[in-house]
Amino acid sequence: MSRKFWWLTGLAAFAVVVIVVVVPSVVVTRQKQQNNQQAESNNPQQPPSTNNLGDPNTTSSTEVQLPAYAKATSPYANLTRIRTYNDIEKQKDRIFVIGDVHGCAAELKQLVQKINYNPDRDLIVLAGDLVYRGPDNVGVIRYAREIGAMCVRGNHDHVVVRFMTYELQHGPIDQDSKDTMPEGDVEDPLKFDDDHVDIVKNMTREDYDYLASCPLVIEFPTLNNSRVVHGGLDPSVESTVNNDPYWIVNMRNIHKGEPERTKSKGEHWADYWTRAQANETHPVNIYYGHDAGRGLDLEAVTFGTDSGCVYGKQLTALEMKTHNLTQVDCPEYSN
Ligand SMILES: *[C@@H]1O[C@H](CO)[C@@H](O)[C@H](O)[C@H]1NC(C)=O
Ligand SMILES: *[C@@H]1O[C@H](CO)[C@@H](O)[C@H](O)[C@H]1NC(C)=O
Ligand SMILES: *[C@@H]1O[C@H](CO)[C@@H](O)[C@H](O)[C@H]1NC(C)=O
Ligand SMILES: *[C@@H]1O[C@H](CO)[C@@H](O)[C@H](O)[C@H]1NC(C)=O
Ligand SMILES: *[C@@H]1O[C@H](CO)[C@@H](O)[C@H](O)[C@H]1NC(C)=O
Ligand SMILES: *[C@@H]1O[C@H](CO)[C@@H](O)[C@H](O)[C@H]1NC(C)=O
Ligand SMILES: [Mn+2]
């Protein structure tokens, strides 16, 4: 998409206020106790241009205080924390959240046709994990960009972005190497022989720019106080921006007060969230993916949209204003 087109649509478009808070690219190691991190602001990334929402305003916030359990964020994360769109509900008739696509490009196209998507009227937000496990990973990225979909970053997207940022800076990754990528004290050190690198090898620079631009959190404050994330948010962390990026993309449960990857330990984070919002006049509604094990899970203020397409179940689009559901069936690509 050319810069010129960007500006033209931008000028023609609606007033959108976007707040972007960028994770410092300079932080290599951040120990648990060093939580008052002064972040450097680097270029906030722009979302794709084809959704007619205009060239958004971006603001870099420089202070990100992570919770005590936080580990280092990879210097290759190239992460936008939050992007905020006000009045989205006035600009778009229908706003769909689509759960984990995982490389199922054909099913995504089928679903987009089934909802009769019109980019002038409608918006699609992908709830993360666009890639991995499925048959056509770059196909999903390219189609998402083409239709002007927004996306949030999933755990598999995050791994792919980290590897590709490394490649862009250090040259091609040797997949036969047994080495670990040097990222400091991260929670999940990556080895160069990881199969996510197969996806990186298929990606163009444009594919990378799209995937890297997906923030951790998309906020629609005026649309019923809604947020979209991949994994979840910790209700005990005061501000959204202060959630540990690792856990926003990986959390399924909360166990002994801390986020947890598996759903066998502790309790669903969404239950904690629901209780924390119980007395709020305007509760924060969270739309998320990442939990094919629980499947479609629509509660009072939390909406799980990963219905396990890549595992032979369904791909789901949930419309945020009406909560109308549309699904397509998927063949089993993974088990
Ligand atoms: C960006 O912010 C400025 C100042 O707040 C405002 O005048 C302008 O309309 C905004 N542009 C968009 C596209 O929201
Ligand atoms: C990479 O692209 C090739 C050729 O299209 C395809 O066969 C392969 O499955 C892709 N690999 C991944 C991991 O997406
Ligand atoms: C980070 O991603 C953006 C696209 O979102 C890209 O423009 C920028 O060059 C990337 N930065 C690095 C250090 O790779
Ligand atoms: C909500 O209100 C009830 C009744 O007043 C109270 O017991 C409960 O602790 C409150 N919950 C929160 C999360 O504030
Ligand atoms: C908006 O939030 C209110 C209060 O939480 C809820 O009653 C209503 O159903 C919500 N509407 C949608 C479309 O989510
Ligand atoms: C809900 O979605 C279905 C397609 O899945 C569509 O036929 C129907 O008109 C939609 N209903 C509303 C109220 O939007
Ligand atoms: Mn996931």
From TrEMBL:
Fetch the Gene3D superfamilies from UniProt.
3.60.21.10
Pfam families per the UniProt record, alphabetical? Metallophos
Tree of life domain? Eukaryota
Q: Which GO terms describe its molecular function?
A: endopolyphosphatase activity; phosphatase activity
**What are the boundaries of the region Disordered?**
34-66
Protein's name according to its UniProt entry: Calcineurin-like phosphoesterase domain-containing protein
InterPro entries, per this entry? Ap4A_hydrolase (IPR050126), Calcineurin-like_PHP (IPR004843), Metallo-depent_PP-like (IPR029052)
